[in-house]
């Protein structure tokens, strides 16, 4: 199979790389395997890509190690930062192509995909700015010693990303790792390999030495497992399901105790108080669950509404959800495209069926949308209880539940009654309520009178089973630096 292919999307035609990107070259996998890429809008295979197996992970690790101990080590922090900034500029120049790839491969609407590209480029540029601002401290221990710390790169980093934001997750992972002077191999999700490969072209054009950034397409149980158990990888960063997150942590423990960061699932509460601005709240609640077709780790899937406005809120929210335009990602009016795959479609539909069997009321949706493509109607369940799987488990689709509460204490108790702790939101006009409640919520991010407002400057990650460590912001650099203490004896006294 060739190493690239012309692809025609409804908005552009471009040349898609298909090989594994190792050492700044696109290459075939050692085993010569390939796998198919499906367009979720019409369920059709439109291209195949080369597949990485264990031996390709070995090749990428060797390339990264060679870069790390060779040319990359000689590149100054300022020059490193400049390469990242150049990469961000290139992403912006290629925005239309990258967005079309995301829309075609993932099914997200072209307009949302463009926003993803802009956010991804900004994230890479932000970390370019950090590259020459990573430094240690001088610590005044005593008069006879000079003590200082160095923040050194961890080494070879393996990064495993999901399919819901293929390009954005690439940027969140690669940005801080490379800014801190590491070399990486990043494995895209098998459902959405194309934008990561396209980034290979831009990485080369931005001037990174060979082996600093390697991109692998492949399956979790093969290439992903090879990364998390690899003896030559110093750090693994994973975003995806909690079940696989546990496996990654176990594999790291059983192999070389590589450093681990995990960004996992959620079942995030979105709390609306009686005094909320109802128009504002409805708009953010709607965006909180239906953005990216509900395929967000931080999706606001449990909507808690105070009794004084519950009936009015539900009526208006139903109207709002039904107005969301579901359809072709390349249509300019589309808000919600198809789910990413047959598997995800089936999982979500089985949750919907279970909700119905358990006796919850379908207020809106509850069915497939259309007859072709992995489309699902925006769905709202009411009359739910805490034992139902639709309330307890991450659905990762356009499905939410709405519950009524009386008091602030009750809202906090329901909100925290989950093993997850990724995000939460509060809608209220009362400043004191917003501060009091956000202090009580067990969640890595709390939004007030908004939702999904993620910035590359602010940390993001989970309490409880939603993960370990924080991505984004200055905090993410901690994942990618080892701290070395150096103590120099100044006096001539002997021990
Ligand atoms: P997944 O966790 O299986 O896949 C995520 C990534 O992990 C992919 O790159 C995959 O190839 C890799 N992977 C899979 N098994 C692996 C293993 N044994 N070792 C190393 N890497 C492995 O998620 P999947 O099956 O695509 O989606 C299932 C559910 O996971 C979703 O319904 C959703 O609930 C959750 N999820 C959460 C995401 C988040 O952003 N936190 C993103 C994607 C899925
Ligand atoms: Mg796909």
UniProtKB/TrEMBL annotation:
Q: Name one Pfam family in it.
A: Aldedh
Q: Which GO terms of the cellular component aspect does the record hold?
A: mitochondrion
Q: What class of enzyme is it?
A: oxidoreductase
The record's GO molecular-function terms, alphabetically, read:
aldehyde dehydrogenase (NAD+) activity
Please name the pathway.
Alcohol metabolism; ethanol degradation; acetate from ethanol: step 2/2
Gene3D superfamilies from the UniProt entry: Aldehyde Dehydrogenase, Chain A, domain 1, Aldehyde Dehydrogenase, Chain A, domain 2
Task: Indicate the residues that form the catalytic site.
Answer: 263
Start and end residues of each Aldehyde dehydrogenase domain: 27-486
- Asked if Kinase is a keyword of the record, the answer is no
Catalytic activity line of the entry: an aldehyde + NAD(+) + H2O = a carboxylate + NADH + 2 H(+)
Name the SUPFAM superfamilies on file: ALDH-like
Q: Which residues form the signal peptide?
A: none
Q: Which UniProt keywords apply?
A: NAD, Oxidoreductase
Q: What Enzyme Commission number(s) appear in the record?
A: 1.2.1.3
InterPro entries of this UniProt entry? Ald_DH/histidinol_DH, Ald_DH_C, Ald_DH_CS_CYS, Ald_DH_CS_GLU, Ald_DH_N, Aldehyde_DH_dom
Give the record's family classification: Belongs to the aldehyde dehydrogenase family.
- Please report the name of this protein according to its UniProt entry: Aldehyde dehydrogenase
Can you name the source organism? Uncinocarpus reesii (strain UAMH 1704)
